[in-house]
Amino acid sequence: MKGQEAAYESFLGLVMLLDLSSNKFSGQIPSELTTLHKLKSLNLSRNQLTGEIPNKIGDMKSLESLDLSVNYLSGELPMRLSGLNFLSSFNVSYNNLTRRIPTGTQIQSFNESSFIGNKLCGAPLTNDCVHVDKSDTTSDQKEDGGSHKVDWGLIVSIALGFIIGFWGIVVSLMLNRSWRITYFRLLKKLIKV
Predict the structure, then answer these.
(1) Three-state SS string across the chain, please?
(2) pLDDT per residue over 122-178, tens digit each?
């Protein structure tokens, strides 16, 4: 009704399906969504959501479908996701999620495609998790600005090997006539054999 303010508190808790996909929403996933305890399907895919997946998402015990794919979510998958026993559809692909997929849960029964495009490890993915201390990771990232370090020693040794190996031989053959003649004689013998 025009000019009236509607209050939805009384039946908002009864919402069972919420599809907000492809809306260009940005920012973090509102923690208020996790209070919708009767929600069976939540689709926030194809937005521009950032931040971590709220830990309280594990309180949404009725969830059967959860799609958070194609966003910019980061951090770990919350361990409390393991409490979602009715999930039959789950997708967090193409985000910036890291670390281990929670173990001993139904989440590990989903296809690898549900996790693709992240830096996750552990079952059902084929890449195993290597134990990395968080403090070591952050200090390494600070040291190299968060990107991969260039191994200058390797680059210099390759360049020196090329200069000395290739040009050293070519220049010496060009300048020293007796070496050049000996080299071509040897080459002729090798070709005849």
Answers:
(1) CCCCCCCCHHHHCCCCEEECCCCCCEECCCHHHHHCCCCCEEECCCCEEEECCCHHHHHCCCCCEEECCCCEEEECCCHHHHHCCCCCEEECCCCEEEEECCCCCHHHHCCHHHCCCCEEECCCCCCCCCCCCHHHHHHHHHHHCCCCCCCHHHHHHHHHHHHHHHHHHHHHHHHCHHHHHHHHHHHHHHHHC
(2) 888 777 777 544 444 444 444 444 445 677 888 888 888 888 888 788 888 888 888
**Statement: the pTM of the whole predicted model exceeds 0.85:** no
Rounded Cα–Cα distance for residues 124 and 34 (Å): 26
CA distance 155 to 132: 28
Residue type, 15: V
Beta bridge partners of 74: 96
Rounded to whole angstroms, the Cα distance separating 49 from 52 reads: 9
CA distance linking residue 134 with residue 86, whole number of Å: 32
Closest-CA residue to 84 (of 55, 47, 43, 45): 55
Question: Locate tokens 């979602």: which residue?
Answer: 84
Residue among 57, 56, 79 nearest 68 (CA) = 57
C-beta of residue 69 within 8 angstroms of C-beta of residue 91: yes
- Band (100; pLDDT cuts 50, 70, 90): confident
Phi/psi at 60 (5° precision): -85, 70
